[in-house]
């Protein structure tokens, strides 16, 4: 697992807070609605079971080493640890994911969300929570998962469910988006995230299990 310095990850997190002045409730509502729209996608002729196994592949491409997940009724919950070190300080954190499914009209409505908990300091405690059962979408600029993250997640989910499009890497995704909100920060920039194609993922997994 990659471990960039605490200063780097702190700068990334603070950049979310420094992009604009204090938000009004109206601004937050507009941004929240845009994120909710981006977080949802309807997949025709697909079952919830199909979605769960495709989402497992998407999540393992984010961090194949530390990702843990389980199915709870119509929801897949997942989480992964990350740690960053700096001089006389460290951060222990955990990123959480929920993939909710609702079967309707011959397909599945899929809603994705993510959140982060982290403890920092000279002797920070570990985040002991296993999963988040429910993550609410909000309109705060400081939120880790943004509109771009939702779009990238669904692009990759569609790749495994439909299989008729090219894989969307973080590098290629960044070339085609503009603006702070459209960047895939939670999918691409957090500690421990890997930007592997499906072929690279299989190759590295084979090397891991052949040791």
What key phrases describe this protein's structure?
alpha+beta, five-stranded antiparallel beta sheet, 37% helix
Structure explained in plain terms:
This protein has 211 residues and is of the alpha+beta class. The chain has one domain. Helix content is 37%, strand content 25%. The chain has seven helices and five strands. It has a five-stranded antiparallel sheet. Helix 3 (48-62) packs across helix 4 (147-161). Residues 1-19 have low confidence and may be disordered.
Query: Which word captures the global form?
Result: globular
User: How are strands sequenced across the largest beta sheet?
Assistant: 1-5-4-3-2
Task: Please give the number of β-strands.
Answer: 5
Give the low-pLDDT segments: 1-19
Overall helicity: 25-40%
Radius of gyration using CA atoms only: 17 Å
Q: What's the domain count?
A: 1
Largest sheet: 5 strands, antiparallel
Task: Quickly count the helices.
Answer: 7
Mean pLDDT: 83
Estimated structural class = alpha+beta
Give the DSSP E fraction (strand runs of 2 or more residues): 25-35%
Q: How do the SSEs run, as a string of H and E?
A: HHEHEEEEHHHH
The separation of the N and C termini measures 17 Å
Summarize the structure.
It contains seven helices and five strands; from the N terminus they run H-H-E-H-E-E-E-E-H-H-H-H.
Describe how the helices and strands are arranged.
Blueprint: H1 6-17, H2 25-39, E1 40-44, H3 48-62, E2 68-72, E3 75-86, E4 89-104, E5 107-121, H4 147-161, H5 170-175, H6 185-188, H7 198-209
Antiparallel strand pairs: 1-5, 2-3, 3-4, 4-5
Helix pairs in contact: 2-4, 3-4
